[in-house]
Amino acid sequence: MKKISIRVLGCALLLAFGSCSDSLLDKDPISSFSANGFYKSASDAQAGVYGIYNSVQSTFRLNFAYWGEGRADAVQTNHAGDPFMLKQNGLTSIMTSSRWDNLYVMISRANYAIKYIPTVFEGDDSSLRNQLLGQSRALRALAYFYAVRVWGDVPLILEPYESINQELFVSVTNQETILNQIEEDLIFASANCAASYGGERNRVLITKGAADALLTQLYMWRKDYAKAIESADRVVGNSLYSLVSMSNWNDIFSAGLSNESIFEVGYNEVQTNALRVLYAIGSDSDYFPSESFRNSFEDGDLRKTKIYDITQAQPRKIWKFFGEGFNDESADPSANNIVLVRLADIMLLKAEAHANLNQADEALTLLNTIRRRAGLDALDAQSATALYGDLVSAILHERSIELCFEGHRWFDLVRTGRAIQVMGPINGLSDVRNLVWPLHEDAINRNPSLSQNEFYR
Amino acid sequence: MSVTINLTHPRSNRIRILESLIFLLLFGLLWIQPVFAQTKSISGKVIDLDTGQPVLGVNIFVKGTTNGTSSGEGGQYTLSGVSTGNILTFSILGYASQEITVGAQQTINVSLQSSTNSIEEMVVVGYGRQKKRNLTGSVVSVGSEEIDKTALQDPISILQGRAAGVQVTSNSGAPGGEMTIRVRGNSSLNSGNNPLFVVDGIPIESNSISSLNGSENFGLNPLADLNPTDIASIEVLKDAASTAIYGSRAANGVVMITTKRGAAGKPEVTMNVTTGLSELSRKLSVLNATQYRQLILDSYTNLGTTEEPYFTIIDSLNPMNNGDVDWQEELMRTAAQYKVDFAVRGGNQNTKYAWSSSYLDQDGVILNSNYKRITSRLNVDFNISDKLTVGQSVSFTNGTNNRINAGGVGNLSVIRELLVRPPIMSMYLPDGSLNGYSLGRRNPVGIALYATHLNKSNRLIGSQYVEYAILPELKFRSNLNFDYISMKEDEFMPSILDYREGYNTGAVRSSGNLTWGNESYFSYNKTVDQVHNFGALLGLSFQKWRFDRTGLDGMFFPSDDIRTLNAAGVISNQGINVASEHAMLSYFGRFSYDYQSKYLAEFNLRADGSSRFGRDQRFGYFPSASVGWRFSEESGLDGLGFLDDGKLRFSAGMTGNEAIGDYTSQGEFSLGSNYLDFSGAAPTVMPNAGLTWETTTQYNAGLDMAFLANRLSLTVDLYLKNTKDLLYNVPIPNTTGFNYITQNIGTIQNRGAEFLVTSKNLVGKFGWNSNLNISLNRNKVTSLPENLLTNGYIQNGNFHILQEGLPIGVFYGWEFDGVYARDEDNVNGVTHGALGPVFEGGDPIWRDLNGDNIINQDDRQIIGYAEPKFFGGISNDFSYKNFSLNVFFQFSYGNEIYSEINHQRNSVVRYNNLSTDALSRWREQGDITNFPKPVRDDPKQSDSRVQSRWVEDGSYIKLKNVNLRYSFAPDLVKRIGLYRLDAFVTASNLITWTKYTGFDPDVNSYSGLRVGVDEGSYPQSRTFIFGLNIGL
Question: In what residue span(s) does the TonB-dependent receptor plug domain sit (chain B) (predicted)?
Answer without folding.
Answer: 131-254
